[in-house]
Amino acid sequence: MSNDEKKAFTLVELLIVIAIIAVLLGLAFPVFQGVLDRAKKAQAKNDVTQIVTAVNAFYTEYGRYPTSATRDATATYGPGGSTTENGGLFSELRATTSSLNTRQIVFISPPDAKDQTKPYSGIKTSTSGYYDPWGSEYAVAIDADYDNQITPNPYNNGAGGSPLHQGVIAWSLGKDSTLGKGGSYTSSDDVISWQ
Predict the structure, then answer these.
(1) Arithmetic mean of pLDDT over the chain
(2) Which tens digit of pLDDT belongs to each residue from 60-84?
(3) C-alpha 2: how far from its chain's center?
(4) 194 and 169 in contact (C-beta within 8 Å)?
(5) What pLDDT digit, counting tens, does each position of 8-35 carry?
(6) Residues 123-151, buried b or exposed e (16+ Cβ, 10 A)?
(7) Residues 18-33, buried b or exposed e (16+ Cβ, 10 A)?
(8) Which of 93, 101, 127, 151 is deepest in the core (most CB within 10 A)?
(9) 154: burial class by Cβ within 10 Å (0-12, 13-18, 19+)?
(10) In this predicted model, which residue has the larger pLDDT, 121 or 6?
């Protein structure tokens, strides 16, 4: 071989390198997906904890919860609740309305969702609904009759008894956007504030 000839990869060598890269990507993708799922669950857990803290802070400030409902069943906001959107609740907690939050105190300040047509992790500005990392609204239940119980527990089993001895609870439906598995929290991907 003379010095004038250039060395290059053969087609077979290039195909082998591409195949190795594809195998490595195939192995890395599930790991990356698992890390992403855990990060979304951590974000949702943080959000539901902040929601409960904000509602309790409202109670501490005003001596009442941010709802005009008088029964627990009517003070459930978000998916599966009597109020299908949680926007009214978060409008009060964010001080964008003043019907219940007369002093205009900001109790929670989540970011606006980046994509308002398909909101993820933030507020949908047109409805003031608060969305989880998977694109479903957070659900919130408040003890509207002030007996320190939430009735009924949204899960049949695996997430405490019924009634729950709490003033407020919040939950995310998780990646599958359904309430538990057959009403049970145990084997679901849901994220709840009370456990």
Answers:
(1) 87
(2) 999 999 988 888 878 888 886 666 6
(3) 67
(4) yes
(5) 888 888 899 999 999 888 888 887 878 8
(6) bbeebbbbbbbbebbbbbbbbbeeeebbe
(7) eeeeeeeeeeeeeeee
(8) 93
(9) buried
(10) 121
* The predicted structure's pLDDT at residue 186: 80
Calpha distance 138→27 (Å, rounded): 33
Residues in the chain: 195
The neighbouring-strand residues paired with 124 are 129
For residue 92, give the H/E element and its range.
helix 87-93
Tokens 């501490």, located at residue: 60
Give yes or no for a cis peptide into 152 (omega within 30° of 0): yes
What the block records as the tokens of 113 is: 């969702």
* Dihedral class, residue 148 (left if φ above 0, else alpha if ψ from -120 to 50, else beta): left
Q: Locate tokens 């299908």: which residue?
A: 84
Beta pairing partners, 137: 131
Task: Dig out the tokens for 115 from the structure.
Answer: 């994509």
Strand ranges (DSSP E) for 46-155? 76-77, 122-124, 129-131, 139-142
First to last CA, the chain: 73
Model pLDDT for residues 34-68, shown as the tens digit of each residue? 888 899 999 999 999 999 999 999 999 999 999 88
Nearest CA to 171 among 149, 147, 144, 191?
Answer: 191
